[in-house]
Design goal:
Layout: H1 15-23, H2 31-41, E1 46-49, H3 56-71, E2 82-85, H4 89-102, E3 112-114, H5 121-129, E4 134-137, H6 139-147, E5 159-162, H7 165-170, H8 174-181, E6 189-194, H9 199-208, E7 213-216, E8 228-234, H10 237-249, E9 253-254, E10 257-261, H11 264-275, E11 282-284, H12 290-301, E12 307-311, E13 332-334, E14 340-342, E15 358-361, H13 368-375, E16 385-391, H14 396-407, E17 415-417, H15 429-438, H16 441-463, H17 465-468, H18 512-517, E18 526-527, E19 546-551, E20 557-559
Parallel strand pairs: 1-6, 1-7, 2-4, 2-5, 3-4, 5-6, 8-16, 8-17, 10-12, 10-15, 11-12, 15-16
Antiparallel strand pairs: 9-18, 13-14, 19-20
The chain binds adenosine-5'-triphosphate.
C-alpha cells in the first residue's frame, strides 16, 4: 500500500506559514516538497531534480521562511540570511512574488528583496542597506552589489539557493558565481534546484554542496500522458502559417496558448500575420524592457490574453549565445542590426505561466533541454496540458533526438502524430498567402522598432505611475495591433464556405473583440483533431469531436 503523503501541518511549520499555504489553496505538498522540506529543516544540503512545474520553488522557499521565522524567536540583529540566485530577471520577479505570498502573514518578520530587475545599482542600495532577510538576484547583479559593499554576506548568510541550477553556467554566470562565493561565510546551507541534471549541475554540486542529500524525483522530466499530451505535425514554412492561422481562428486550439518561435524577428512576423486576421497576441522577447516582460506574464496569468508569441533565444546548445557576464558590466549585448538584447532573459525556463492549456512549437527547439522547458510551461502542478510541435524537414533530426530522450526504455513514442487533415484547410491557403505577402521584412523591422519604443514608454510608466495606481495597470495592454496599415479588414472574418464541411456549426470563429470578452473559466481547453471519420458508425460526425487536450481543469473529459 502506498504510504500516506506527509502533510504541511505535519512538518512543524510556523502557523503563519501554514496559513499562507492554505491561502494559496495548496491542500497538500507536491512530491518534491514532501521530500525536500523536512530534509531542509534538518539543515541538510540538497540537490533536487524534479520535473518542470512540480513545485520546486516552494520546496526551498518554505524551509527558508521557516528557518528565518525560527531564528527570529531569539533576539537577533536584522541581517541578510538567505540568498536566492536565479538566472533571469523574470524568475527573480516570480520568486519574490512566491516568497511574498508565503510571507503574507509574517511580512514584518521576513523581508524579501528582489534585486535582479532594476538597472541602477545606486537605486537598489537603500533597499539592501535595510538588510532584507532574503535577497533574490542574478549572480552578476549580486556580485556587483557585493563588490560595491552594498551587500555584505560573509558573517550573516545562513542559506544559499541556486534555482534553475543547470542554467547558471550556460547563461555565462560561471565566473560571477565563483567570485561571489569568495564573499560568503565558510558554513551555510545550500540548495540546488533543477529540472534537468546536466554536467553543469554536477560542477555546481562540487562547488557548493557539502555531503548533500540528492533528491532525484520522477523518472520522466515531463508529466506523463495522462496529464500532458504531446503531438507533432510535419509541415513546411508556409504550412506552419496556414496551420496556426486556422487553429487559432477556428478555435481548434482552445485555452491560453504559448507559441514559441526561434528568433525575435519571427515573433513579429507571426504577430503581424495573425493581426491581419484579427487575432491579437502579445510578443515576449529579450529586447523588451524587463518591466514590460513581467507585466505581460502577470496579465497573461490573470487571463488578459489568450496568446503569447515568445522567442526562446537562449539556446543551451550554443553557449556562445550567452555572454560571459561579469559583475558591474552591462548585460545587454548587441545583435546584428544594433538592437540591445537582455541576456538575463528567459521565457521557457522556470517562468510559472499559469493555466496554460497549450504550448505550440511553431519552430522546434534546438535542444532536448529546451524542448522540456518549453513544454513544461503547460501541465503545471495538477493541471492538464497539450504540446504541439510543427516540424519542417530541417527539424526532423531534432525531433528524433527529443523522441529518443523522452521515450527512454519505453517503446511507445511520446510525441504522437497530430491527426489533422491539412487538405481540410486548403481553402484558407489563398488568404494565408495574401497575409504572408503583407508581412514584408520592412514591416517586421518597423513593427519591431515600434514595439520596443512603445514598451520603453510603458516601462517607464510601469516603474513609477503604476506603483501608486495598480488598478490602472489593467488598462495597459501589450497585444495591440502593431501595423494597422497592413491589416486588411476582410481577412478578419471567416466566410462560412471556407470552413471545412465537417467543422461547420462546431467551430465558432470569434472576432477579436468578442474573444477578449469571453470568460476564462468557461473556456474549454486543448486541441481539436480533424481526423474523425465521416458518419462514423452512423453517428453525426460533428458530435464525435474530441479535444485531444482532453480534460478541463476538473479533469473531466472534454466534449464539444
Ligand atoms: N503544494 C502545491 N499544491 C498545488 N499547487 C502547487 C503546490 N506547490 C506549488 N504549486 C503551484 O505549482 C506551479 C508550479 O510551481 P513551480 O513554479 O515552483 O514549479 P517548478 O518545479 O519550479 O517548475 P520549473 O522547473 O518549470 O521552474 C505554481 O503555479 C505553484 O503555485
Amino acid at each position: 500500500m502506498a504510504a500516506e503523503r506527509l502533510q504541511f501541518h505535519e512538518m512543524g511549520l510556523d502557523d503563519r506559514l501554514l496559513k499562507a499555504v492554505a491561502d494559496l489553496g495548496w491542500s497538500q505538498p507536491t512530491l518534491i516538497q514532501e521530500k525536500a522540506i523536512p530534509l531542509a529543516l534538518e539543515g541538510k544540503d540538497l540537490l533536487a531534480r524534479a520535473r518542470t512545474g512540480s513545485g520546486k520553488t516552494a520546496a526551498y522557499a518554505v524551509p527558508v521562511v521557516q528557518r528565518i521565522l525560527a531564528s527570529k524567536q531569539s533576539v537577533r540583529e536584522q541581517d541578510v540570511r538567505a540568498l536566492i540566485l536565479v538566472p533571469t530577471k523574470e524568475l527573480g520577479h516570480q520568486v519574490q512574488a512566491m516568497m511574498r505570498q508565503l510571507t503574507a502573514f509574517c511580512s514584518r518578520d521576513v523581508r524579501v528583496a528582489d534585486i535582479s530587475g532594476k538597472a541602477d545599482l545606486s537605486a537598489q542600495r537603500p533597499i539592501l542597506m535595510e538588510k532584507p532577510d532574503v535577497v533574490v538576484g542574478t549572480p552578476s547583479r549580486v556580485l556587483a552589489h557585493l563588490n560595491a559593499q552594498n551587500l555584505v554576506l560573509h558573517s550573516s548568510l545562513e542559506m544559499l539557493v541556486v534555482d534553475e541550477a543547470d542554467l547558471l553556467f550556460s547563461f555565462g554566470f560561471e565566473a560571477d558565481l565563483k567570485n561571489l562565493l569568495c564573499h560568503l561565510p565558510k558554513i551555510y546551507q545550500s540548495f540546488l534546484m533543477s529540472a534537468t541534471l546536466t554536467e553543469d549541475v554536477q560542477a555546481l554540486k562540487e562547488l557548493l554542496l557539502h555531503n548533500p542529500v540528492i533528491l532525484k524525483l520522477q523518472g520522466s522530466q515531463l508529466p506523463d500522458s495522462s496529464q500532458l499530451q504531446q503531438y507533432s505535425i510535419k509541415c513546411e514554412e508556409e504550412d506552419k502559417f496556414l496551420l496556426i492561422y486556422t487553429l487559432l481562428k477556428l478555435r481548434l486550439v482552445q485555452g491560453k496558448t504559448l507559441v514559441f518561435v526561434a528568433a525575435v524577428d519571427r515573433c513579429y512576423r507571426l504577430k503581424l500575420f495573425l493581426e491581419q486576421f484579427g487575432i491579437p497576441a502579445c510578443v515576449l522577447n529579450s529586447e523588451l524592457p524587463v518591466q514590460s516582460r513581467c507585466h505581460i506574464i502577470t496579465q497573461f496569468n490573470q487571463g488578459f490574453y489568450d496568446y503569447i508569441i515568445a522567442s526562446d533565444e537562449h539556446s543551451l546548445a550554443d553557449p556562445t549565445a550567452a555572454p560571459q557576464t561579469t559583475a558591474g558590466k552591462g548585460k545587454k549585448t548587441m545583435e546584428r542590426g544594433g538592437k540591445a538584447k537582455d541576456k538575463e532573459y528567459g521565457v521557457s525556463r522556470g517562468v510559472d505561466f499559469q493555466n496554460v492549456a497549450n504550448v505550440i512549437n511553431f519552430d522546434f527547439p534546438t535542444t532536448v533541454e529546451s524542448y522540456i522547458h518549453r513544454v513544461g510551461r503547460t501541465a503545471r502542478a495538477d493541471n492538464p496540458g497539450t504540446a504541439l510541435s510543427f516540424i519542417s524537414h530541417t527539424e526532423l533530426a531534432l525531433l528524433s533526438e527529443v523522441e529518443e530522450a523522452l521515450t527512454g526504455d519505453n517503446s511507445d513514442s511520446v510525441l504522437k502524430p497530430y491527426e489533422f487533415k491539412m487538405e481540410e484547410i486548403e481553402g484558407f491557403r489563398y488568404r494565408c498567402r495574401d497575409a504572408m505577402r503583407s508581412v514584408t521584412k520592412q514591416a517586421v523591422r518597423e513593427a519591431r522598432l515600434k514595439e520596443v519604443k512603445q514598451e520603453l514608454l510603458n516601462s517607464e510608466k510601469l516603474k513609477t505611475y503604476f506603483d501608486d495606481n495598480p488598478r490602472d495597470l489593467q488598462l495597459l495592454r501589450h497585444d495591440k495591433d502593431l501595423h494597422p496599415a497592413v491589416v486588411k479588414p476582410h481577412l478578419k472574418n471567416v466566410p462560412e464556405y471556407l470552413i471545412p464541411e465537417m467543422l461547420r456549426g462546431v467551430v465558432n470563429p470569434l472576432s477579436s473583440r468578442r474573444r477578449r470578452k469571453r470568460k476564462e473559466k468557461t473556456k474549454p481547453q486543448g486541441l481539436v483533431k480533424t481526423s474523425f471519420k465521416k458518419n462514423d458508425q452512423g453517428r453525426n460526425p460533428l458530435k464525435s469531436f474530441k479535444y485531444t487536450g482532453g480534460r478541463n481543469r476538473k479533469g473531466k473529459a472534454g466534449q464539444s
